Structure formats: C-alpha cells, structure tokens
C-alpha cells in the first residue's frame, strides 16, 4: 500500500463518517437502529406495482435528460396546486437523481471557487460537502436553541453576509432539527436575499411530513423570490422510496438551465420506470401523505414522550424524521461518546448532532433519534431507554 498517496483535497477527510460507524455498531450489537433516517414504513402498493409493470413493459432505457415529460408535468402541477406557483414543465422543471444530485448540481452551477454559501447550522451533511466540491465556502448561520425550539436570529443572518455571498441554502422542514421555518422567519430571509441579490436553493424534501399545527411554506412563493429561487424536492421521503433516488428542481429557466448543464455530466438521467410510475402517483400525494403524517406523528409523540421520561430532554420536532435530545442528565457532555456507548448501555443507536454542525462551539450534548420506523421499533427503543435510564 502506498502510504504517500492522498486523494484530491476536495474529498480528503470525507471518507468515513459517524453514520457509517453507528450503522456498523447497530449491525454488530443488534441494537434498535434509530440512527440513519432510513424508513421502515410501507410505500404505496399501487406505486410499487406500477414500477414493476413499467420495467416489464420495457421502460428501461435513458429518459430525456430533463426527465420523463409526464413527471415534469406532474411536478409543475404539484407546485401549482400546493403553493400557487407556476412552472413550465419544459425548461423550469428538471428531474434529478434524488434531491442529493439536485443540490450538488445546483451548487456546482451557481458557485465559483471562493464564493460563499450561507446555510443554517446545524445542517444536512451534504451541504458542506457540496460546497467543498464546488470550491465554495459554507458559512454557517446559527439556529439557536431557545427552550426546546430552534430559532433563527435574522440579525445573525445579516451579519454573515459578505461581498462573496452568492447563495443561500435553506432547508425547511429542517433536518436534523424538525424545525419548520415560520412565515416571519421566511419573510426576514427573503428580505436579506432580495437586498443582497442572493440566489436561493431550498431543500424541501420533507414538505409533506409536517405535524400538528405547523405549516410548511415555500420561500419561492414570497414576493420577488420566485425569480431567484431553486426549489428542490424528492420522492424518497414522501413515498418511503429512499432507494429510488428520484428528485426534482423547479425554478426560473435561467437557473434551471445552469443546473441542467451540470447535471447532464453527473448522471445525465435516472430511473426511467420510477419516473413513469411517480408521474402517475404524484397527483394522489395529498391523500397518501395524510396517512403517512398520521403514522409519523404518532411515532414522533411516542419517541418525544419516551425520551422525556428517560431523562433525555427532547427538543420540539414539528416535521420530518428526527427528534434531538439533550444527553446531559445521563452524565454526558459529549454526544459522540453517548452514541458510542448507547448500544451496549441501552441497545439503541442514535447519531450525535455534532455531525450536522459546521460552526465551532456548537452544542456538543445533542443527539438525533429517528422515528421513521415501525411503531414497534420506536416502542422497543423507548422501553430500552427507560430500562437503561
Ligand atoms: C434525505 C434528504 C435528502 C436526500 O434526498 P434524496 O432524494 O434521497 O437524494 C436531501 N435533503 C435532506 C434534508 C434530506 O433529509
């Protein structure tokens, strides 16, 4: 083995993550895995049958680079019906290899080396990685915990803007916190973006998974924002088909064309039979998502109440797959150590929230538990935590 060999700087230290370590721990110890956000829940049966039929009918070659036309039409209709936003299926909608490729292609298309990308911290781990692949710098804007809720300080956002700021990357509903950005927060974000002429990339993969009274709003619908915003979503979280990797991006033609230019040389195109079946399913998303929200919000409640009873103070999660918990009452200040010891101590796997923080001096005592699991798994995990408390 050549020990002098180094990979390119843009991927150095990206190798193994705490996700790999915790997934391996779960496998090795047989612990209940509330680490990674991989759903254990069913997908719509009609969607699965439709994909199988499409494969057998021969829908197995490259689709158009921009995506299967019927899916682009269904995505445009989805944005119109849900948010009152009009996008032309030809030119303003692009189908991608999951939201992940849409994000990577957007950052590659929008940023020159040295540009700055503003993102709220903690953030999804693909954001700092995507910034680095583009040669850009991710500038974290803290979401601070106030009581059990993560809040945005618009002053901190303003203070983070520099002449190099080019893109604001917003994730709402938010992973890992389960935060849904409020109308006031979005209005403040939109003000900053208009004032400093920032291009916005929004990641809304949890748009349908919002619980209780919380309501998802899309930034592109705010005054003056459609023309500067790329809105990204995906089928994975909405239909429990995370392995299919079908995503999409909507925006004004000049921005979508730039993303398409990068995307065509990353993957060119993806998943013809999945695209075909999703084009038919997306029109029925509201009915499907209402049922899924019921399941997930019950799991969220079970987990939140269980964590509180076990002395792991939970934060409020209004959306998505995850609850953050404060592990200090168990005698830990370091969430990484807590997560390394939890499988043997309690038979449960979680992920330290530090894996999602970019800024130094972020809270180290938070860990993330996922609840996109069978109710039985969540119940078992709660019982185990209570026994170990
Ligand atoms: C899961 C997730 C993604 C990835 O979506 P894919 O469609 O599977 O690529 C992107 N952003 C966030 C915030 C996620 O949680």
TrEMBL record:
<feature type="domain" description="Aminotransferase class I/classII large">
    <location>
        <begin position="32"/>
        <end position="385"/>
    </location>
</feature>
<dbReference type="GO" id="GO:0016212">
    <property type="term" value="F:kynurenine-oxoglutarate transaminase activity"/>
</dbReference>
<keyword id="KW-0808">Transferase</keyword>
<dbReference type="InterPro" id="IPR015422">
    <property type="entry name" value="PyrdxlP-dep_Trfase_small"/>
</dbReference>
<comment type="similarity">
    <text>Belongs to the class-I pyridoxal-phosphate-dependent aminotransferase family.</text>
</comment>
<dbReference type="InterPro" id="IPR004839">
    <property type="entry name" value="Aminotransferase_I/II_large"/>
</dbReference>
<dbReference type="GO" id="GO:0009016">
    <property type="term" value="F:succinyldiaminopimelate transaminase activity"/>
</dbReference>
<dbReference type="InterPro" id="IPR051326">
    <property type="entry name" value="Kynurenine-oxoglutarate_AT"/>
</dbReference>
<protein>
    <submittedName>
        <fullName>N-succinyldiaminopimelate aminotransferase</fullName>
        <ecNumber>2.6.1.17</ecNumber>
    </submittedName>
</protein>
<keyword id="KW-0663">Pyridoxal phosphate</keyword>
<keyword id="KW-0032">Aminotransferase</keyword>
<dbReference type="InterPro" id="IPR015424">
    <property type="entry name" value="PyrdxlP-dep_Trfase"/>
</dbReference>
<dbReference type="InterPro" id="IPR015421">
    <property type="entry name" value="PyrdxlP-dep_Trfase_major"/>
</dbReference>
<dbReference type="GO" id="GO:0030170">
    <property type="term" value="F:pyridoxal phosphate binding"/>
</dbReference>
<dbReference type="Pfam" id="PF00155">
    <property type="entry name" value="Aminotran_1_2"/>
</dbReference>
<dbReference type="GO" id="GO:0005737">
    <property type="term" value="C:cytoplasm"/>
</dbReference>
């Amino acid at each position: 083995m050549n020990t002098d060999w180094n990979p390119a700087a843009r991927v150095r230290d990206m190798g193994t993550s705490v996700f790999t370590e915790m997934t391996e721990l779960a496998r090795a110890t047989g612990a209940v895995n509330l680490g990674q956000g991989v759903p254990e829940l069913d997908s719509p049966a009609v969607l699965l049958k439709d994909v199988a039929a499409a494969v057998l009918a021969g829908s197995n070659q490259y689709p158009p680079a921009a995506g299967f036309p019927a899916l682009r039409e269904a995505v445009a209709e989805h944005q119109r019906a849900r948010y009152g936003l009009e996008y032309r299926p030809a030119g303003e909608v692009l189908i991608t290899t999951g939201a992940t490729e849409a994000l990577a292609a957007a950052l590659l298309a929008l940023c020159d080396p040295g540009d700055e990308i503003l993102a709220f911290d903690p953030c999804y781990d693909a954001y700092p990685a995507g910034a680095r692949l583009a040669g850009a710098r991710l500038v974290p804007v803290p979401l601070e915990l106030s009581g059990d809720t993560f809040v945005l300080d618009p002053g901190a956002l303003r203070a983070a803007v520099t002449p190099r700021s080019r893109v604001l990357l917003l994730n709402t509903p938010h992973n890992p916190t389960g935060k849904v950005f409020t109308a006031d927060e979005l209005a403040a974000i939109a003000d900053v973006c208009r004032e400093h002429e920032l291009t916005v990339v929004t990641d809304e993969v949890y748009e349908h998974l919002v619980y209780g009274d919380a309501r998802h709003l899309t930034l592109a619908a705010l005054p003056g924002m459609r023309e500067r915003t790329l809105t990204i979503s995906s089928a994975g979280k909405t239909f429990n088909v995370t392995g299919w990797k079908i995503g999409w991006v909507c925006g004004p033609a000049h921005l979508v064309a730039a993303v398409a230019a990068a995307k065509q040389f990353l993957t060119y195109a993806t998943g013809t039979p999945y695209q075909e079946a999703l084009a038919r399913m997306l029109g029925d998303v509201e009915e499907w998502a209402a049922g899924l929200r019921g399941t997930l919000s019950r799991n969220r409640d079970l987990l939140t109440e269980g964590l509180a009873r076990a002395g792991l103070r939970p934060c409020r999660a209004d959306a998505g797959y995850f609850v953050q918990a404060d592990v200090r009452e168990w005698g830990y200040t370091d969430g990484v150590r807590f997560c390394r010891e939890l499988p043997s101590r309690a038979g449960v796997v979680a992920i330290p929230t530090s894996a999602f923080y970019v800024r130094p001096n972020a809270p180290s005592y938070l860990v993330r538990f996922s609840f996109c699991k069978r109710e039985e798994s969540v119940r078992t995990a709660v019982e185990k935590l209570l026994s170990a408390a």
